[in-house]
Amino acid sequence: MRRLFTAAAATLALTACSGTDSGGSAPSNGDAGTDATATAPSAFETDIAPIIATSCVTCHLTGQEAGNMALVPAKVRESLVDVPAVGAPGLQRVVPGDPDKSYLVMKLEGTQLEHGGTGARMPFGNPPLPAEQIAKIRQWIANGAKP
């Protein structure tokens, strides 16, 4: 039941953060179509948020769960970027521009113990993320972990 609730909450959070109105259309900026970058979704929206919504938010919804992280799309950066890692003193969860120093990557790749971290590989209790999803997260971090 908890997984069903958290999955539904994650879906609602993604919908709420998608930048569309209740009719499903993007808000008008008055001159739509003249600047593709103004309406193009970010790499976070297209690549990272869906991974987090399906693989992470079920255990990290409100910030009261393991690791004290709220990983709904509106809270991801505030919970991860430049935040000290709970299970690894001296490490940051996400170091913008440096995936190799980001504890999130270590936890996803299962190398956290080699770097003084603790706990299991993430996502806990599930198979590891596919290599292409980890590569997208690495690229997002390498590009500055932008929203």
Features:
6 helices
Write up this protein.
- The protein has helices spanning 2-16, 36-39, 43-55, 76-80, 103-109, 131-142.
- With 147 residues, the protein is mostly helical.
- Helix 1 packs antiparallel against helix 3 (43-55) and helix 3 crosses helix 6.
What is the radius of gyration?
16 Å
The termini sit apart by: 31 Å
Give helix % range.
25-40%
From the spread of the alpha carbons, the general shape counts as: globular
Number of helices: 6
Q: Please tell me the total number of domains.
A: 1
Task: Specify the biggest β-sheet.
Answer: none
- Strand percentage: under 5%
Low-pLDDT runs: 1-33
> Please, what is the average pLDDT?
80
Protein name: Cytochrome c domain-containing protein
GO molecular function, one term: metal ion binding
Keywords: Heme, Iron, Metal-binding, Signal
Organism: Caenibius tardaugens NBRC 16725
Summarize the structure.
It comes from Caenibius tardaugens NBRC 16725. By secondary structure, this protein is mainly α.
